[in-house]
Amino acid sequence: MKAAVFRGVGRIEVTEVPVPTVGPGEVLVRVRACGICGSDLESYHTGMYEPGTIIGHEFAGEVAAVGAGVDGWTVGDRVTANDALSCGQCPSCQRGQPTLCESVQMPGITMNGGMAEYVALPAALLHRLPEGVTMQQGALIEPLAVALHGVRRSKLAPGDQPLVIGAGPIGLLTLQGALLAGAWRVFVAEVNPARAALAEQLGAFAVLDPTRDNLAVELGQHTLGAGPSVVYVCSGAPRAFEDAFTLVGKGGQIVVLGLAVEPVAADFLTVVLHELDVCGSYLGCEEFPAAIDAVAQGRVNVDALISHEVALEDVVTQGFAALETPGSGAVKVLVNL
Fold first, then answer.
1. What pLDDT score does 99 carry?
2. Candidate from 46-50, 133-137, 195-199 with smallest mean pLDDT
3. pLDDT mean over 151-166
4. For labelling alongside 82, which of 60, 63, 98, 165 has CA 20 to 30 A away?
5. Within a 10 A sphere around the Cβ of 6, how many other Cβ atoms?
């Protein structure tokens, strides 16, 4: 079978590898669609994945074979896979924090993932897709779950006016998740014109360009000087983290979903004087059922995020390239298999 294998910094090779053997407790999935995540792109440049790993943790497909001891799954079942499988035994799991599991298994990161024709997975990772959910939508369940986890981790209350910094896939899904949670008006900060337009389409009250607009003044006018109650940082750019401290309202909360790979300056004087809460949000393994329901019921629009669809052999030359090319309009690139 063909698979996209991470070989090291700047090297992802689409090559022939054996179809994985299905062990006890595992299911073989025939992958139909797999998204390129920002962390895949980051690993491509920094090497944070283990060489030899098949990438891909946003995918959907059909059950192709079932291993010994697996109940509840049959060939042909339509599925997506959770982004993390916790051990259930470590202190974090015992505290009810599975995303912090000390022995977490993560497709496409700590184990082979779905950027391949087939992937063998522990059956416990699978979630069933309703008939009305397409394979392309199924591949976006994972990033939606990540966004919903961030909203759930926040202190957002009905009627609040939060700010989302960064209108990439996670930011656009966080925007929709905040509206679902009862936000009155959601502001979005984004410099990319295509992504800014998409944020408006998906319900943002106002989309501000940090390179052109005075965010503090604009937000102050709309919030009577109070500032956003919650700021969701959905970008990995250092400036986004720095801006969050100055833009969030007094007594507010900063929820960090973006991954910054370099040190970021933080205004802890403001954290103290304004009694701010700073909250990290990682993965979304508990939110998969809610994410699937939201897509199946049409309460979240994931189709609008799909800007490019490419073949597996073109994942780097067309998929990664689109995400790195200014003006390409790329938001979420899907690999169809």
1. 84
2. 46-50
3. 97
4. 165
5. 25
312: burial class by Cβ within 10 Å (0-12, 13-18, 19+)?
Answer: buried
Is the pLDDT at 240 greater than 90, yes or no? yes
Tell me phi and psi for residue 76, to 5 degrees: 100, -15
Name residues whose C-beta falls within 8 Å of residue 164's C-beta, 6 or more positions apart in sequence: 171, 174, 175, 178, 186, 187, 188, 189, 199, 204, 231, 232, 234
- Other C-beta atoms within 10 Å of 87: how many? 14
- Measure the CA–CA gap between 139 and 126, rounded to whole angstroms: 13
- Domains along the sequence of the chain with CATH: 2-140+302-336 (3.90.180.10), 145-280 (3.40.50.720)
Task: For the chain, give the secondary structure using H, E and C.
Answer: CEEEEEEECCEEEEEECCCCCCCCCEEEEEEEEEECCHHHHHHHHHCCCCCCCECCCEEEEEEEEECCCCCCCCCCCEEEECCCECCCCCHHHHCCCHHHCCCCECECCCECCCCECEEEEEHHHEEECCCCCCHHHHCCHHHHHHHHHHHHHCCCCCCCCCEEECCCHHHHHHHHHHHHCCCCCCEEECCCHHHHHHHHHCCCCEEECCCCCCHHHHHHHHCCCCCCCEEEECCCCHHHHHHHHHHCCCCCEEEECCCCCCCCCCCHHHHHHCCCEEEECCCCHHHHHHHHHHHHCCCCCCHHHEEEEEEHHHHHHHHHHHHHCCCCCCCEEEEEC
Question: Tell me, what's the pLDDT at 261?
Answer: 80
Q: pLDDT averaged over the chain?
A: 95
Q: What distance in Å separates the CA atoms of residue 227 and residue 221, rounded to the nearest whole number?
A: 9
Average pLDDT over residues 227-254: 95
Model-level pTM?
A: 0.96
> 112 near 52, Cβ under 8 Å?
no
- pLDDT for residue 266 is more than 90: no
